[in-house]
Amino acid sequence: MNKKTIEIRKQFLHFFHKKKHKIIPGSSLIPQNDSSLLFTNAGMNQFKDIFLGNNKSYQYSKIATAQYCLRTGGKHNDLENVGYSSRHHTFFEMLGNFSFGDYFKKKAILYSWELLTSKKWFALPKDNFLITVYKTDEETYDIWANVIGIPLNRIILIGNKTEYPDTSDNFWQMGDTGPCGPCTEIFYNIKNNLSSKKNKNSENIIENYIEIWNIVFMQFNRINDHSLLRLPNPSVDTGMGLERISSIINDVSSNYDIDIFQILIKDIAKITNTTNLKNKSLYIIADHIRACYFMIAENILPSNENRGYVLRRIIRRAVRHGYLLGVKTIFLYKLVTSVNKSMNINNIHLLSKKENIENILKVEEIKFNSTLERGLQLLDSKIKTVIDNTLDGEIVFYLYDTFGFPIDLTEEVCREHNIRIDYLGFKKNMDVQKNRSREKKIFNTNYSIMNHTENTSIFVGYNTYKVKSFIENIFINGKSETYISSGEKGIILLKNTPFYPESGGQVGDIGIIHNKTGTFKVEDTKKNGKIILHIGILLSGMLEVKTTVFSEINTQFRSSIKKNHSAIHLLSAALKKKLGNHVYQNGSLVTPDYIRFDFFHNIPIPLTIIQEIEQFVNQLIRRNILIKTEIINFKDAKKRNITFLSNKKYDKYVRTVSINHYSNELCGGTHTDRTGDIGFFKIKSERSISSNIHRVEAITGRKALDSIHIQEKNIYEICTLLKTNPNFLKTTFEKITLKQKNLEKNISELKEKNMIIIINELTKKITKINHVILLIDTLNNQNTKTLRNIMDRLKSKFKYAIIILANIINNKVTLIVGITKNLTQSIQANQIMHIILKKINGKGGGKVDIAEGGSIYIQKLPEALSNIKIWINSIL
Questions:
Q1: What is the pTM assigned to this prediction?
Q2: Rounded to a whole number, what is the largest CA-CA distance in the chain?
Q3: Integer Cα distance of 646 and 584 in angstroms
Q4: pLDDT tens across 133-142, in order?
Q5: Beta bridge partner(s), residue 853
Q6: CA distance linking residue 665 with residue 46, whole number of Å
Q7: What is the pLDDT of residues 606-632, one digit of tens each?
Q8: CA distances from residue 207 to 156, 193, 198, 211, 440 in whole angstroms, order as listed
Q9: Measuring CA to CA, which of 226, 453, 498, 736 is 20 to 30 A from 598?
């Protein structure tokens, strides 16, 4: 039988459609509302809440899907098997049918058997199947043996590895607790080599069989103590790999022999000039480019963390295998068209991302290619010197830290040489680096405040700008003091304060702390643990510990910060809308004067898009949207569509800032009541500050308007100078530019004519020594570039020549000596230059065929040139 993979997918879905299943699209590769998974790794992921009983209102009880899956880590990690196994992939499609309290074991098994063996459907030979069943699942065993009629020697019972059922290969669980149940696996004999010696209790699966379908019966809820409670509505969860069943139906020995892979493999072989289509590297590249394509299509970009790091690992592994095939230039991006072709992609949304996917792959390949060769050379040299067949962990870390080699890439190279990796040594070096980074991040005030753990501060300043408070501590020059006097700098700790400490990119408040005895100017506010530090100088009088004061922030300063902080939330929303959901924050700064927002993006941003971002933010400002804040449990926040920093540690309760459906973020900063309070938003600059990191700086309110007025003033002054008006400024500049180009062209032509005249005059002054032309002459007021051009032309004009040109300009002499290369064995330009410069007290140097120098002692030049002529004559 010869069927295209796309036809097999359609046939599967059509079969279950006829069985009254609702056919729904597969979900995103990025699991929704599930932080336990980096990627969707099974068809059941999108139905997790239904299996858990959290979604009781789902409208369909029978469903079938074709789900894109990615298995690159954790429990399901196929990355290391790719290329070494003919059946494993990072990216693949999972065909699945699901029952939520509808049919159960009998129908699930009957459906699978009909689809696999019926002549109307897949028509696979019945004698080629082997079945595994959970050891105590007598119902399933009976269905296979007595209803389907599988011979008993081809039904294998799989028991527990320990006393608990969750340790069996045929007892599936979603997690440590929750829905679980026995499963039955369908295996197919790819070599048609049945064994009659296997009995009912054997747990050794026959070598020639491969698993093609797993049917899980969700009938229990597992509790922490391993006890099982029967579910009131048992369900069915199945999974069958499309690529694997396609290889079975088409009777080929490897998944890579099916049509969707062969299209890719042949294109890769053509690009890499590889003749052996069974080459392992071709398989790996074919698998990895599919994974890269669909990850980038989901707005995942290469980075050093989370999903982006997985993508980077896959790209770099593919690039390395291209290197093994002899490809030293970027090539992965050329395969994007091949993926579209092999997967028969006609989705307009996906096709529109082709250029973006290519660009991202180009950037990442270029970046890695620059270090790949050096890294591999180092690794190869170290492999030759390994002791005890183990590569030192320090070397593995150095490759990771310096060359960006993911550890699995180093591991793969070592595996090809039958060498192990010192993982403990690698981890030790990683821990040292992490500790070093952590130490750098610790806020150090050089004060003894860290020892005063009994001190805590309560921030009360979201809506209150002046409060009555109590001085708990005063620090001067790192020491705790009982009072602070006029003119002294120090830190004051208050019990409650309206001063917002520097946090989350927002700068700390300024203001005053005062009572009848003294006034302290707060110049900055910072946070250290649970302590808020009011840093500044006492302007007058004296303040004492354990006394009551009024703490009062600078309201104008705070007002500007609030406008800018709310604006940065709108900016973040606008960037995601205009550039894509891959945009995520990489740092921010909120000051009263401007905002700075760093974010992840891989390609340049044109001015038109910058202007669209500006327009979108100002549109939201004009709508005067209410800005809402709420305190919620962090666990609840993670379940909602709320943006938060994955690398930041949050308290149990967090504060959310919501601007309608446009922006919903965890944020402790200060904000305006409505977007309209911001007034006006203007982007001042946008640039790339490092690889894939862009920075936007922007201003709001009056400062934004002032910025436009300054630009208008500059344009007005330029127009005045050019005697034009702003409407014709571009046209005027175009005319000036064209005129300048014409003038430069005329000057260039005049210089060329002048040079020809000079060369003709010089040619008249040549002398000959034997067969060698000698030209020594002095010019005036020629620039260095002209002098070099004259020399080049003279050297190319004569076959054997020694040319010495002096040029006097501004009472200085510059010298250039040129010798045709066929004479450099006998006489050298730098040697001649050295002799001349010695006579005129000059400096310079050069090579055997060209040398340059100069001096301020021009009066000695004639004698020096006369003497060098005599010296050259003696040499020749």
A1: 0.59
A2: 117
A3: 10
A4: 998 899 999 9
A5: 815, 844
A6: 24
A7: 999 999 999 999 999 999 999 999 999
A8: 13, 9, 12, 11, 55
A9: 498
